[in-house]
Amino acid sequence: MEAENQKYWKVRDKMTTQTWAILLVVIATLVGAFGPILLKKASARKLSKISSLIKNYYLFGGVALYALGTLLFIPALKGGDLSILYPFVSLSYIWVSLLSVKFLGEKMNKYKWVGILLIILGVTFIGFGS
User: Fold this and answer.
1) How far apart (Å, rounded) are the C-alpha atoms in residues 125 and 89?
2) Per-domain residue ranges for the chain?
3) What is the pTM of this model?
4) What is the mean pLDDT of the chain?
5) What's the whole-number mean pLDDT along residues 13-35?
6) Residue 48 CA from chain centroid, whole number
7) Residues sharing a CB contact under 8 Å with residue 32, sequence separation 6 or more, in sequence order
8) Residue 84: how many CB atoms within 10 A of its CB?
9) Count of CB atoms within 10 A of residue 37's CB?
10) How far is CA 30 from each of CA 7, 26, 73, rounded to the nearest angstrom?
């Protein structure tokens, strides 16, 4: 058992985050970012009765896209360190902001743009720090 543990940690020490894993996380965040857009549209509909919930396709679509984003994220974890991959999840904030402008007619202001820039810088620094 001890030899097996030592073998595992030697492999882990050498692991580098692979490009395909990063790309898969970025795709997962984009897919998952459509979830809150659809949930926002679902919230505009009447949700007081079970029958109205069942007929609210935006609600089911939003939940499904959240789930799909998570399912895409899981295999990416095999391709690198969690401490490198997980910060890329913050890209979902960027996607949601941009998609909200496109699909919900929301407005961007200078503070939102600065926030997006800071997220990009943070993810970049973490990537360089690996």
Assistant:
1) 14
2) 2-128
3) 0.80
4) 88
5) 90
6) 30
7) 65, 66, 68, 69, 70, 72, 73, 92
8) 20
9) 20
10) 36, 6, 11
Cα 80 to Cα 125: distance, rounded to the nearest angstrom: 17
The answer to whether the CB of 64 falls within 8 A of the CB of 105 is no
Residues 6+ apart with CB under 8 A from 58: 38, 39, 41, 42, 45
Two structure tokens written together for 80: 């690198």
- Rounded CA-CA distance 70/30 in Å is 11
Q: What is the DSSP letter of 48?
A: S
Q: What would the pLDDT profile of 62-80 be if each residue is shown by its tens digit?
A: 999 999 999 999 999 999 9
pLDDT value at 10 more than 80:
no
Residue 81 identity = D
Q: Name every residue whose Cβ is closer than 8 Å to that of residue 53 and which is 6 or more positions away in sequence.
A: 47, 59
User: Residue 49 — pLDDT band, cuts 50, 70, 90?
Assistant: confident
In the numeric block, the tokens 């789930």 are attached to 67
